[in-house]
Specification:
- The protein is mainly β.
- It has one domain: Porin, CATH 2.40.160.20.
- Helix content is about 10%, strand content about 65%.
- The chain is built from one helix and eight strands, in the order H-E-E-E-E-E-E-E-E.
- An eight-stranded antiparallel barrel has the order 1-2-3-4-5-6-7-8.
- Strand 3 and strand 4 form a beta hairpin.
- The longest helix has 23 residues, at about 1-25.
């Protein structure tokens, strides 16, 4: 009996030694692979783009009567920079627009046009991941062209003045389709102010609303 007990103890010792040696061997498991996370989108960065839309508004013509409303196509380009702080986004943008905003009275005696304008504005908004809702406002400038098509020869008169004391305010919504391509829609009110064209008693200016679609590339 003692012989069998000694044999069992010896066998258990050999098994324990084998298990310890196996534990010391290098593991055959592969290296631990760290999880890959998609980069978080940020609105921070420079961007350039183009826009197109429709404008409609008023002709402010002191000294003239029955001058019609202003409307027509608007299109151009924008460049700007955004900086994101948490959920908030601040930035600045400048744009330059070609326009076909024209007006005239029922008799066709006075025509007023704005053929181009531009703005330099601050922007501030709230980001919901790839959506951005923002407000914007700043300085506006542009041309106001006044003509009297019924007057010819020595009576003809045309005025093309550049207005630099205007302002623009608006709001918009943008969505980042990719990390670089951003689309949006925007409303803006632009007032170019008034300037004298035939003395202090005759002032002409335009103010108008613009609804436009935007497409920008963010670097």
């Amino acid at each position: 009996m003692k012989k069998y007990l000694l044999s069992g103890v010896a066998a258990l010792g050999l098994l324990a030694a084998g298990a310890a040696s196996a534990a010391d061997l290098p593991s055959r498991k592969g290296p631990v692979v760290a999880p890959i996370y998609a980069p978080v989108f940020t609105w921070t960065g420079f961007y350039v783009g183009a826009n197109a839309g429709y404008g409609f508004g008023n002709v402010n013509a002191a000294g003239f009567a029955n001058v019609g409303d202003l409307d027509g196509f608007v299109g151009g380009g924008q460049v700007g920079y955004n900086y994101q702080i948490g959920q908030f986004v601040i930035g600045a943008e400048a744009d330059f627009q070609g326009a076909d905003l024209s007006s005239g009275n029922n008799l066709g005696l006075v025509n007023v046009k704005t053929e181009w304008y531009g703005t330099v504005r601050a922007r501030a908004g709230v980001a919901f991941d790839r959506f951005l809702v923002y407000a914007t406002g700043g300085w506006a400038y542009g041309n106001v062209k006044t003509s009297f098509p019924g007057l010819v020869g020595p009576f003809a008169f045309n005025s093309d003045r550049t207005h630099t004391g205007g302002f623009a305010v608006g709001a918009g919504l943008e969505y980042a389709f990719t990390n670089n391509l951003i689309g949006g829609v925007e409303y803006m009110y632009v007032d170019l102010g008034e300037k004298n064209i035939l003395g202090a008693a005759t002032k002409v200016g335009t103010d108008f609303s613009v609804v436009r679609a935007r497409l920008s590339y963010k670097f």
